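User: Hi! I have a protein structure encoded as tokens and I'd like to know what sequence might fold into it. I'm fairly new to this, so please keep things simple.
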């Protein structure tokens, strides 16, 4: 079984070696370590890492520019590492597409714990189409649970919920939902979609009159709009 690959970009070679040592202990991760921005961009394309730890202050191309270049081609998670602790710098880094911002100096054990937590969360979420504090939709079995209890759904209700939850925030028209779930069923029409959505809301929403999961977008249709915990 392959281990996750982490691209570590840091121009301070002492920090580079210490962080690499902590992350590679027990064989948990494979770490590709580089010291400058241009090499980082090349490595990001060549190694297809699962996570990038990216220093902001790099010689030549800085970390912010590296992140912009990565985001043009990939949505790989990026953690910025920087001695800059001002809120404006943190916000700017996150706005560029970083997933976290770690301020120097830091304890290598804490950094390793953050990385472990990131991969644990990703492993849990990969088992589900959706999971928050109330609602779970399993990827393989398509079982739907609410507060830990299996929700009894009819086949078309389940198909509709699964289809929408695969692309959270995507807005679908009634016509699109009908064609995707019912296809060319001559015994149904588009009003069937609205009936099933109303029934689904009764079964999964904390307040069906003010839905959290299946949200109406006026003039357009519906989207799966749950917010992750």
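Assistant: Happy to help. Inverse folding works backwards from shape to sequence: for each of the 229 positions I chose a residue that suits the local structure. Here it is:
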């Amino acid at each position: 079984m392959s281990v996750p690959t982490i691209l570590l970009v840091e121009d301070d070679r002492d920090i580079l070696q210490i962080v690499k040592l902590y992350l590679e202990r027990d064989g948990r991760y494979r770490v590709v370590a580089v010291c400058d921005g241009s090499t980082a961009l090349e490595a990001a394309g060549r190694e297809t890492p699962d996570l990038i730890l990216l220093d902001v202050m790099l010689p030549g191309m800085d970390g912010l520019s590296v992140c912009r270049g990565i985001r043009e081609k990939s949505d790989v998670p990026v953690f910025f590492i920087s001695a800059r602790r001002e809120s404006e710098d943190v916000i700017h880094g996150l706005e560029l597409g970083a997933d976290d911002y770690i301020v120097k100096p830091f304890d290598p054990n804490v950094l390793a714990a953050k990385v472990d937590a990131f991969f644990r969360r990703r492993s849990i979420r990969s088992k589900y189409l959706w999971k928050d504090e109330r609602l779970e939709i399993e990827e393989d079995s398509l079982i739907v649970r609410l507060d830990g209890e299996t929700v009894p759904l009819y086949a078309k209700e389940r198909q509709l919920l699964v289809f929408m939850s695969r692309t959270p925030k995507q807005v679908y028209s009634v016509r699109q939902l009908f064609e995707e779930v019912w296809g060319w069923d001559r015994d149904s029409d588009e009003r069937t979609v609205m009936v099933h959505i109303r029934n689904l809301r009764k079964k999964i929403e904390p307040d069906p009159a003010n839905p959290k999961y299946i949200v109406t977008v006026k003039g357009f249709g519906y989207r799966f709009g749950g917010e992750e915990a």
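A useful reference point when you look it over: Residues 108-125 form the longest helix (18 residues). Feel free to ask if any position seems puzzling.
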